[in-house]
Amino acid sequence: MSMANTTAPTIATSSQDIAGPHGPKPRRMLSRRNIFLYGTLFVMAAYYLLPLYVMVVTSLKGMPEIRLGNIFSPPLEITFEPWVKAWSSACTGLNCDGLSRGFWNSVRITVPSVLLSIAIASVNGYALANWRFKGADTFFVILIVGAFIPYQVMIYPIVIILREIGLYGSLSGLVIVHSIFGMPILTLLFRNYFASMPEELFRAARVDGAGFWGIFLRIMLPMSLPIFVVAVILQVTGIWNDFLFGVVYTRPDTYPMTVQLNNIVNSVQGVKEYNVNMAATILTGLVPLIVYFISGKLFVRGIAAGAVKG
Amino acid sequence: TDLEVTHWWTSGGEAAAVAELAKAFDATGNHWVDGAIAGSGGTARPIMISRITGGDPMGATQFNHGRQAEELVQAGLMRDLTDVATKGKWTEVVRPKSLLDSCTIDGKIYCVPVNIHSWQWLWLSNEAFEKAGVPVPKDWNEFVAAAPALEKAGIVPLAVGGQAWQSSGAFDVLLAAVGGSDAFLKVYKDKDAKFAAGPEVAKVFKAADDARKMAKNTNVQDWNQATNMVITGKAGGQIMGDWAQGEFQVAGKTAGKDYTCLPGLGLNEVIATGGDAFYFPLLKDADKSKAQEVLAETLLDPKTQVAFNLKKGSLPVRGDVDLNAANDCMKKGLAILAKGAVIPWTDQLLSQDTQKQKEDLFAEFFAKPELTVDEAQKRFADLIASAD
Amino acid sequence: MTAANGTSVSIQNLSLNFGAVSVLQTLNLDVAEGEFIVLLGPSGCGKSTLLNCIAGLLDVSEGRIFIKGKNVTWEEPKDRGIGMVFQSYALYPQMTVEKNLSFGLRVAGTPKDEIAKRIARAAEILQIEPLLQRKPAALSGGQRQRVAIGRALVRDVDVFLFDEPLSNLDAKLRAELRVEIKLLHRKLLNTMIYVTHDQIEAMTLADRIAVMKGGVIQQLDAPQTIYNRPVNRFVAGFLGSPAMNFIDGRLENADGGWRFAADTLKIPLGTYDFAGDPTPGPVVFGIRPEHVSLNNGTGWPFSTAANVEVVEPMGSDTLVWLKLAQQNFSVRVTAERTPNNDEAVTVGFDPMRASLFDAATGTRI
Amino acid sequence: MTAANGTSVSIQNLSLNFGAVSVLQTLNLDVAEGEFIVLLGPSGCGKSTLLNCIAGLLDVSEGRIFIKGKNVTWEEPKDRGIGMVFQSYALYPQMTVEKNLSFGLRVAGTPKDEIAKRIARAAEILQIEPLLQRKPAALSGGQRQRVAIGRALVRDVDVFLFDEPLSNLDAKLRAELRVEIKLLHRKLLNTMIYVTHDQIEAMTLADRIAVMKGGVIQQLDAPQTIYNRPVNRFVAGFLGSPAMNFIDGRLENADGGWRFAADTLKIPLGTYDFAGDPTPGPVVFGIRPEHVSLNNGTGWPFSTAANVEVVEPMGSDTLVWLKLAQQNFSVRVTAERTPNNDEAVTVGFDPMRASLFDAATGTRI
Amino acid sequence: MSKSERPNPLFRNLNAKVASIPMILTAGVVFVGGTLWTVLYSFTNSKLLPRLNFVGLDQYYRLWVTPRWLISIENLLIYGAISLVFSLVIGFLLAALLDQKIRFEDTFRTIFLYPFALSFIVTGLVWQWLLNPDFGIQHVVQGLGWESFSFDPLYNSSIVIYGISIAALWQGTGLIMCLMLAGLRGIDEDIWKAARVDGIPMWKTYLFIVIPMMRPVFITTLVIIASGIVKVYDLVVAQTSGGPGIASEVPAKYVYDYMFFAQNLGQGFAASTMMLLSVVIVIVPWAYLEFGRRK
Ligand SMILES: Nc1ncnc2c1ncn2[C@@H]1O[C@H](COP(=O)(O)OP(=O)(O)OP(=O)(O)O)[C@@H](O)[C@H]1O
Ligand SMILES: Nc1ncnc2c1ncn2[C@@H]1O[C@H](COP(=O)(O)OP(=O)(O)OP(=O)(O)O)[C@@H](O)[C@H]1O
Ligand SMILES: [Mg+2]
Ligand SMILES: [Mg+2]
């Protein structure tokens, strides 16, 4: 009643008006569109989550239970021992301190590698986008082709190069290797990002007297946070999960966490402890996952800016 | 002195075995720096080779006992151990003698064999045969005959994991068992392609054909998953090396009661002397070179040998050691070894290249029923013809 | 159904909020069949929003929209019988002009020959026949605009909606296209609702102009009425270029008549047409630069002396800036009669031409 | 070295190609000290390119550029003593207004107090003191524009380059800022080179206008000269809004004098000031709409009858369209004297005000 | 001193050139140098160590008569086609779905992206399990009563390469989705409106209007996917090690196996030279067209 009263003035002029639709179009939660939309999303989400479910469930089971072979059944008896073992007591040869051993090595490898590779690639992208010089395109095309070279093929040439410059086996050598292999895709990303920024900003800064580095550091950098987040995500994922370079170009005392992971998982002989393997994988993936969570929104925005223009 | 040792022994038992080596080495006043890389030679080897050629060599490194390090030696990157060997009278203590042959290049000794792993075993699940209502077979032929009964009971007769080295290894075992030691040597040592194309080897291929039919429903990749099928009675048997024993032990199974092991498939009881050896890159540091010598000696020390091999589940390389603690199957192996029924293993006879090609062939053969026995044998003979 | 007969578009009590921000407030608008309505207003006043509501591209928060007497409030855009031209053209960049024009029809399953006929007609009207096989990237701004109009045209709709179609073009092209749109309207006699913030466009094209500000229609009237008798100070100031002069002062009753006083300036308002009963108080006096004369005899109801400050020649005319009652004041003169800087001049006008606004509310007095 | 004394910017034989596309062709331009030059031309004619060459932001293909008598052809932009305002403002989005203004000075290592002093002065001139701590995103278009100008201002340079600084603004704001720039020039007396495609801006601001087309300067002259005596048909058509009327016809020698003939229309050219010796042949006759009168007595050197076709009210004036010699013709009249559609009227003008162009080459006769 | 003459072009933009030295060195020394080195040694019979012992085209001859290499090539083509098409389609579809102003967008996006963070060393094992007919999905479905259900893509030679793609898509589409989503957000709002007014159904708008407009995004994505395809290795190793038999072998694995397992560097180099050659033939002309022209 009171509802009708308050709206009366608008519709009083003509009683027929009540019949016609007015106001916002009603949206049913269970419209066909929504059923299709969320239905598809949930099915897809299930596909994406199924392996995670199996991993988590397995990692919480004891080995006898795993031998039963029912990978989908929830653990009868939840045990966190595999997690503890994966982290702190799984053995790599003689060293039985699990993933924790390589964790700090991984950090020590990942941080400088990510920083250096992004630093180099961003400067490259900037130079390519804003300071086109003769021959730059050729190098860029070579770089893009380089993105297609299987890493393994390059192991020997790089061994030779590193040996010749005397960096073989050192952390700096590894950092250089990561920078080299991160360069193609990152340079592409940065180049496209900087190319999409208004040219006039760059020109304005030149008229203002800033030089190559001045413009980069003071104008471009502060504006390109999103693309840096993208690059960080790509590189953190790539370098953190890298095994081949980490093990080929360093020494045992600086082996990254993935060497431990590989050792836990890939023992050819002896018993395979699947629960520990799963726990170890999830643990190893946590760092990139945390980076994703933190930068979820920026990720999408950053790529937008980088990729949308040619 | 610190000495870095790289190897690919990372699983529980292996690591424990390595620990024995380390302990013994540390007792000499030196320090074993462990550089374990898991994932079989394929993962570890490029790393080791890169390190050696990259000018940053480790103190010592494991290779499969065989020809894997040949070129490194030829390139002058590895250390000559002849002096140490002479001092330790290796030629006398190492048994079988052929083990040392593989370490010898141009009359110089470059490696230290540490164990013998043999491939020639057929592991059978007693439970599976019980279920199928047939007695546990005594040799390969009985096993093949029992296959239909097993299949009827819903049991996969023979478990062969999907990875290439498993099918290739199974064939080699069949070759030595069905064809006999001579045939094995003729093919792999003499690389007699004509013989490989001949009727004797055809018999082996026939056996392999049986094997692949029996293995058709295996559906697992890893060897230990296949072993697990035997353990749980889902499969009747598996051709696998002595390392499979560890799986049975961990699962709490007892040899003879729960499972049966048939060396040489019960047909030709020989042991192939595959195994692991340590190589020592040439180092500039005199102290380290000294430590290398100490390590080489330590590795062959009788006490170390026993402690190491008991943990590793392999056989020691010297005959003068006491192995009372060994289990049933291991004792069978020791007995054969004592009889001198040994053959060299493919690692020692063939280059890795040829081995890989062989793996490819047998992986295909076991997985692809359309590949006929004749066709496969022809390709095998070609392969042997170009083998090195 | 309740829309008056003969009205083409009728908007009743329309409100629209973006979350907490209210953009349109109980807006009412009736557009007659075949009428050309221009929505005029500063940036951000809700013009595009209103157009999008009519097109069905935005969900209204309250109210109804009728097109041709049918309540279309909840109808899909394609079922409303409208065609729309977007500020940014929104041509499909990878299709040729012809494809751009025909895409909607093909999707609707119109027969091939019918499509060809309609495209031919639109192309002829808009003179874009030679461009049919080009892609938008190969067109100039004006040509793109015509294609965008063509896309609405082929759909054979009752109502055209234009959202600032000319604002991206340079002045010359703008002038040309203005004429074309005017002629198009003559030819087709469709209803057109046209958004702009350019007052020349508004004045030349509209049958009626709706001046908007802050989501509210300030005045809806014929162009000349809006120009000459703006209902409030906002409308007065927004229309006209150069803009109307405003002088702050007071309305006084003196000598039996009303007069405007600011500083020493006193303007008798004998000829002024008051909108209601005037009361004394602070007011704003407004007069357009072209309604003021310089050095042109003494026959004016009001005249005063002043000094020229800046002279701005604009080609055909010149704008002369001076100060009246300490406030800036501009006068438009023809190029030939331009005084010099600092010259002393006489300023004369007829207060009948002026507008007076309440200083507080801004409404016309 | 070869630059004339007293010239501020001198461009000699400048050519610029982008790959195979030649954008500027052996262009010459001398700008005097303190002069305000406007570059005017249609979109894509090379105005921005020329400005960028002067600023050193593009490498020239051929030719030399002098600023203050110094050859700066290969100098870095910062060493040329120029300040530039970009079409899109190009403010650094992450810096406050103050930081934007001071950036160039900080890069150059100017002392802190000197920076503060210059910013204070620029902010005062441009009235942006209250905005100094805001970021560009929080500014309106006009305010951004002023900051962009300020950024050039604080650098205390000899030459200002403006690239269409007002083209993004609506008409009202444009008019305001135009006055500000004019006043700024008066105050600073710097040399200014200003690019636009808006002729009102060009006319009101320039000391001299350079009308460009296709990378070539067509005419460089004072605004009134360009407006009244365009050297070719392009310049004539490009300037003026509404545009000049053109009638295609022939120049004939009749009755001892010259006359223009098209269809039945014959215009005696007794008062026309020929640029050279005329010869009979096809020509184009041009006259501006505001130089034509409607129904205004018979005292004109030439008058004829016509029928009104379209009436376009533009607020202050009205444009009347009719046909002369079957060709469109517009007349600008004051709003009060507007005729009706289809009304018969008399069109009168003085041929002295007209321009005649060669039909083939387009040059003024 | 005034620079009145055209300066030496070598010193124009000197800073940019100096800053590009890492890129130039990487491209020139590592990629070009490394590639030339590889090509050179592919004509030798290098085994464990690279040695300049030339044998002409022997390695190539052997390569092209090796059944495993031929199968690898065939698999790469199939796998490449599948993962290219499905990555793009699924990635785009997911992005389009997420772009519908849905609730929990963040959650869904993270779900689709997380596999990218996990190492394939173990997730390959999980997929092996899931697709295992004896205890994976097939087993579960059959347990539900659908006895004839068969789904064993990793254990069936004829479809194994398709099975491998299932996990490949699982891992890779999240990133593609993010790129696509970003691209979609960059499309002018007015285009959508215009299409709605024109009465064009949503899917047609995507197909005929939006996708062609997202060309640059697709190009970036394409480079990322394609380079991933050519390099595919651990995906196969972790799931099937190339099996059953050699049914799921891929070229990169052939290269790796022959370089390091078989210790036949020459053969590995010959194989990788073939791979690079085909990449160069496809990529270089395209890349020049795409990136070489002026902005
Ligand atoms: N999605 C939105 N969310 C919140 N506010 C919005 C949104 N879209 C528009 N607005 C606000 O609504 C108001 C009206 O916007 P609208 O686009 O209708 O302006 P307009 O009159 O068309 O202006 P212009 O002349 O600049 O195009 C603006 O103040 C704008 O900030
Ligand atoms: N990088 C380039 N490569 C090739 N052609 C170019 C390039 N930059 C500009 N041009 C061409 O040079 C011509 C002049 O461009 P310019 O930007 O100077 O025009 P403009 O006169 O400033 O036009 P507008 O008024 O639209 O700003 C145009 O035709 C343009 O297409
Ligand atoms: Mg708008
Ligand atoms: Mg320009």
From TrEMBL, chain A:
Residues 1-26 are annotated as: Disordered. It is found in: Cell membrane. It is a multi-pass membrane protein. Residues 103-295 form the ABC transmembrane type-1 domain. Keywords: Membrane, Transmembrane, Transmembrane helix, Transport. The keyword Transmembrane helix applies. The keyword Repeat does not apply. Its main location: membrane. Pfam families: BPD_transp_1. Residues 1-17 have a biased composition (Polar residues). The chain crosses the membrane at residues 35-56, 109-127, 139-162, 168-190, 211-234, 276-294. Belongs to the binding-protein-dependent transport system permease family. This is Carbohydrate ABC transporter permease. PROSITE patterns: ABC_TM1. It comes from the Bacteria.
UniProtKB/TrEMBL annotation, chains C, D:
CDD domains: ABC_MalK_N. GO terms for molecular function: ATP binding. Residues 9-239 form the ABC transporter domain. PROSITE patterns: ABC_TRANSPORTER_1, ABC_TRANSPORTER_2. InterPro entries: AAA+_ATPase (IPR003593), ABC_transporter-like_ATP-bd (IPR003439), ABC_transporter-like_CS (IPR017871), ABC_transpr_MalK-like (IPR015855), ABC_transpr_MalK/UgpC-like (IPR047641), Mo/tungstate-bd_C_term_dom (IPR008995), NA-bd_OB-fold (IPR012340), OB_MalK-like (IPR040582). Keywords: ATP-binding, Nucleotide-binding, Transport. The keyword ATP-binding applies. The keyword Nucleotide-binding applies. It holds the Pfam family OB_MalK. Belongs to the ABC transporter superfamily. This is ABC transporter ATP-binding protein. It comes from Mesorhizobium calcicola.
TrEMBL record, chain E:
It is found in: Cell membrane. Gene3D superfamilies: MetI-like. PROSITE patterns: ABC_TM1 (PS50928). InterPro entries: ABC_transporter_permease, MetI-like, MetI-like_sf. Keywords: Cell membrane, Membrane, Transmembrane, Transmembrane helix, Transport. It is a multi-pass membrane protein. It holds the Pfam family BPD_transp_1. The chain crosses the membrane at residues 21-43, 76-98, 110-130, 159-184, 205-230, 269-289. Residues 73-288 form the ABC transmembrane type-1 domain. Belongs to the binding-protein-dependent transport system permease family. This is Carbohydrate ABC transporter permease. The lineage of its organism: Bacteria, Pseudomonadati, Pseudomonadota, Alphaproteobacteria, Hyphomicrobiales.
